[in-house]
Amino acid sequence: MSDTVRWGILGTGGIARAFALGLKHAPGAVLAAVGSRTLDSAQTFARELDIEQAYGSYQALADAPDVDIIYIGTPHPMHAENALLALGGGKAVLCEKPFTMNRVEAGEVVALARAKGLFLMEAMWTRFMPALAEVKRIMASGEIGTITQMHADFGYSATLDPEHRVNKLELGGGALLDLGIYPLSIACALLGNVDSVRAQAVFTDTGVDATTAFTMKHSGGTLSVCSCSMRARSASELIVSGTRGSIRMRRMFHLAERITVELMDGSSRTIPTPWLGNGYTHEAIEAGRCLREGLLEHPWMTLDDSLTLMALLDDIRSQIGLRYPSDA
């Protein structure tokens, strides 16, 4: 294909807007189209973000002739349906996290992408940020010794409005899918396969998890300790520890602009890890690179990675008793 990648955005909510803004900083990326459930919403979004074409249905976007790849930025329970629609229209797909609501849905989406030979990737932006690449480099260098554990938390004080998406069971609300996916995904990216997971949670009056904590034992002999909350403004840091020292991804680790290395001899240094645009730019660049090179998945966020993560989320939800309508 040409060096230009023509993007379509499915959805007009806050995260779709953030991705559209990030996409403007990705070389060779063109905001070609947006699709919404109403033409008025799509046209308003297109005018505000200088998008070439607006479609009044998701199907019309999936069928659009001048779109190479569709970014899906709708609420969690719609991800599988929307991804299947886009793939059915012959489009590559970048689907916002969590990939789907459960492992069964994820399997259906992956199976269709593989059957049709189309690129598909979960939009876990942190896997493509400069900070994570630097953490991996330092871990591999042996500077902090043998890696033994990782701690990560992600928490903020969300609205208490029972009608807001984060508090509604039918919209995939709760801390785990919105926030817990970040430490979960990065723990697996840094420490590898998981042999077992143990979880506990505290619930809201609306039936979703307010706070969830889980530990994972990884195949390499390491442990990760993770927590997430939409009722606590936590430090939201990630620390990888080894026998000689540690690496800290500073507050809001999922978009860390610097990391700190602290060694057993008392020395420390801070390394700047600035990112492009608003952070979403990096995953867009990598998805575009895959399309240009004819890759069907990205080696840093493979389809098997997403299937494994969805299975782990299912396991955690089973342990804490969190069940969504999609599970039926």
From TrEMBL:
Keywords in alphabetical order: Oxidoreductase
Taxonomic lineage from the root: Bacteria, Pseudomonadati, Pseudomonadota, Betaproteobacteria, Burkholderiales
Every GFO/IDH/MocA-like oxidoreductase domain range: 133-248
PANTHER family assigned to the protein according to its UniProt record, in alphabetical order: OXIDOREDUCTASES, TRANS-1,2-DIHYDROBENZENE-1,2-DIOL DEHYDROGENASE
The protein, known as: Gfo/Idh/MocA family oxidoreductase
Family: Belongs to the Gfo/Idh/MocA family.
Natural source organism: Massilia phyllostachyos
One Pfam entry name: GFO_IDH_MocA
Record-annotated Gfo/Idh/MocA-like oxidoreductase N-terminal domain positions: 5-121
